[in-house]
């Protein structure tokens, strides 16, 4: 078996927006290096000052060097029938596969990561960065942060790993069924193996244990593994591969509960890689305000974030239907509720259903009493219900409780609980904050699964 030990220098951290400035490939036969290739490459873009300071590769140095597509044939032929080896292999592989694809080549080969292999074959080191690991193992590392020097040290490390692999870790990693090399370099495979195939929320954490990403899943293991498949060259995925050191998770009874927990946890922790919190806002809302004459007025308008809302709606028709019920039940003035605008007196006054607030015949204090009763009725019109579904085990069922149009909480209860008694339910459920996005999820779910909704 032949291995291609690869190291590259680049203009930045992700392949989709940066270029390669140098590449070194050492062909290793399992015992020693038998062939080599190394060249500077013109990246076709400016090399930033901090990159030049790190690698020593300047814009002048690469000005007359070949572009990647000019040497793509040589690079492809060296790699395509060998095992691709690198320290943090997914970084180097993403750059090379991306640039080869731009040149018309489709690189398909097995990969080995010497970071992951070192953690398994020679455990117990404080750091597995190439520099510190080589110092600990007394591997010579000359010309640090240059492709040739780093590749030579990685090749020597590969020889050591092959010699000390007494448990057959390397052959096992190369099996088609193994997903080992697709994982981030610092994430133990055991943490992925323990993920269940059920709904839940997962937390990616960095070296210090800080949560850097939160996601929900219908199947935790499948969803987490999907982050590490493919060859996405974008910045966010590359940050995952570099920064993920551990995964925590919480099992949920249903996917809906996972949705709710995810939205709540993102807002609580604001992880750096959750770029935007999922939002849903109703388009219209019912408001109450006092006009210059002292009359309390109800009116529909577009949803406004910074105004107190009595009730929110997805369609203006839905809002009109609710408002007309309040007008009818409490003899409110259609003109003061903005149902009519051009008439001097509302039609309700002519029909005996309005006491003349629109004409000033009814005082503001008298009219406002009925408006306050209408607002009170509106609160009783808001739905209260529970959603019962599967639990985490056969001995329980999941429960989501909505009280007067707002999420109260969710949790797990016995199959024999009296779900129509909200007081008993509340004692068993964990309270959760409610917002329009979460209520949209819940109401959409109940429309699709009405049999799971129990009126309270």
Description:
The chain has 456 residues and is α+β, with helices and mostly antiparallel strands. The chain has four domains: 3-182, Nucleotidyltransferase, domain 5; 189-269, 3-Layer(aba) Sandwich (GIY-YIG endonuclease); 284-381, no CATH class; 385-455, no CATH class. Helices cover 37% and strands 21% of the residues. Strands 3-2-1-4-5 form a five-stranded mixed β-sheet. It has a five-stranded antiparallel β-sheet with strand order 15-14-13-12-16. A hairpin with a 5-residue loop joins strand 9 and strand 10. The longest helix has 18 residues, at 147-164. The protein is elongated and about 100 Å long. The model has no long low-confidence stretch (mean pLDDT 90).
Give the name of the CATH superfamily of the largest domain: Ribonuclease H-like superfamily/Ribonuclease H
Shape category: elongated
- Can you tell me the CATH topology of the largest domain? Nucleotidyltransferase, domain 5
Structural domain count? 4
The profile of the biggest β sheet is: 5 strands, mixed
Q: Could you tell me the number of beta strands? A: 16
Strand order of the largest sheet: 3-2-1-4-5
Q: Pairing-aware structural class of the strands and helices? A: alpha+beta
Strand percent estimate: 15-25%
Question: Oligomeric form of this entry?
Answer: single chain
The total of helices stands at 17
Q: Return the CATH class of the largest domain.
A: Alpha Beta
The residue-averaged pLDDT reads 90
- What low-confidence regions span 5 or more consecutive residues with pLDDT below 50? none
Helical fraction equals 25-40%
């Amino acid at each position: 078996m032949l291995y291609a030990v690869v190291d590259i220098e680049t203009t930045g951290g992700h392949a989709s927006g940066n270029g390669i400035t140098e590449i070194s490939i050492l062909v290793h036969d399992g015992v020693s290096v038998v062939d080599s290739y190394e060249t500077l490459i013109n990246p076709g873009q400016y090399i930033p000052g901090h990159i030049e300071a790190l690698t020593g590769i300047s814009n002048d140095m690469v000005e007359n060097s070949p572009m990647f597509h000019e040497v793509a044939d040589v690079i492809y032929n060296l790699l395509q029938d060998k095992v691709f080896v690198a320290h943090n292999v997914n970084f180097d592989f993403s750059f090379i596969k991306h640039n080869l694809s731009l040149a018309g080549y489709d690189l398909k080969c097995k990969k080995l990561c010497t970071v992951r292999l070192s953690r398994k074959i020679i455990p117990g080191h404080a750091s597995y960065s190439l520099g510190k690991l080589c110092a600990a193992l007394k591997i010579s590392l000359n010309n640090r942060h240059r492709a040739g020097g780093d590749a030579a040290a990685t090749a020597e490390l590969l020889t050591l790993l092959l010699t000390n692999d007494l448990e057959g870790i390397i052959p096992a990693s190369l099996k088609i069924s193994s997903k080992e090399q697709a994982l981030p370099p610092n994430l133990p495979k055991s943490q992925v193996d323990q993920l269940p195939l059920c709904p839940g929320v997962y937390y990616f954490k960095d070296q210090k244990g800080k949560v850097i990403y939160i996601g929900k899943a219908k199947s935790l293991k499948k969803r987490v593994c999907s982050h590490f498949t493919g060859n996405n060259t974008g910045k966010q995925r590359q940050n995952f591969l570099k920064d993920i050191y551990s995964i925590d998770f919480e099992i949920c009874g249903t996917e809906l509960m996972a949705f709710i927990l995810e939205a709540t946890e993102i807002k609580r922790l604001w992880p750096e890689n959750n770029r935007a919190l999922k939002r849903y806002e109703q388009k219209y809302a019912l408001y109450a305000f006092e006009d210059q004459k002292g009359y309390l007025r109800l009116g529909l308008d577009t949803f406004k974030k910074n105004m107190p809302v009595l009730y929110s709606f997805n369609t203006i028709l839905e809002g009109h239907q609710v408002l007309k019920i309040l007008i009818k039940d409490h003899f409110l003035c259609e003109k003061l509720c903005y149902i009519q605008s051009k008439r001097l007196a509302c039609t309700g006054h002519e029909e005996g259903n309005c006491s003349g607030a629109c004409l000033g015949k009814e005082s503001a204090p008298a009219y406002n009493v009925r408006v306050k009763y209408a607002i009170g009725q509106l609160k009783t019109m808001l739905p209260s219900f529970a959603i019962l579904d599967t639990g985490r085990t056969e001995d329980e069922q999941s429960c989501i409780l909505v009280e007067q149009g707002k999420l109260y909480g969710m949790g797990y209860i016995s199959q024999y609980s009296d779900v129509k008694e909200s007081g008993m339910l509340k004692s068993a459920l964990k309270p959760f904050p409610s917002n329009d996005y979460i209520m949209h999820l819940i109401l959409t779910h109940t429309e699709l699964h009405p049999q799971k909704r129990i009126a309270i």
